[in-house]
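Re: that chain you flagged

S.,

Sorry for the slow reply, it's been a week of failed gels. I finally had a moment to sit down with the sequence you sent. For the record, here it is as I used it:
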Amino acid sequence: MSRIGKLPIDVPEKTEVKFENSIMSCKGSKGELTRKIHPEMMIKIEDGIITVNRPSDSKQHRSLHGLTRSLVANMVHGVSQGFEKKLEIQGVGFRAEMKGNNLNLTVGYSHPILINLPDDIKASCPSPTEILIEGADKELVGQVAAKVRSYKKPEPYKGKGIRYAGEYVRRKAGKTGV
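Prediction finished late last night. Pasting the structure tokens below so you have them in one place:
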């Protein structure tokens, strides 16, 4: 039995969960999410607890069991509490600011970079060197954070660039003067 797949999922109060025709929908205070679940996975919703079961012990069903349970758990957690990613900017003159629903980055290029954010994502800049990305969909939050980071990845010599909060950047020694 899958160690992750067999764990039950608790549904918080004020969160609605429906499963019909292999489509899972969750509605909560942070938003609404729907996702198509593999039709062979069996999902039961009883008394505020969701359980995911598999039809057999075939390799494909074992693989899908834990995946399905994680996807459903992330949906429930996202609509009730939400997800966030924090990015840090390091470098002289590097900064970020919000302009409406767009993120404006100044990261050492000859021009500022304007990133148009999806409607489901909320971003804020608590300080010019911090970016906070929030949303209900864990996949979308991670994807937007990775896209923002990709504009200026941290380089190994001085450590300048955009990094995840708490990310360790391995440093290299520079040239040695003789």
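What I noticed first: The mean pLDDT is 93.

Talk soon,
D.
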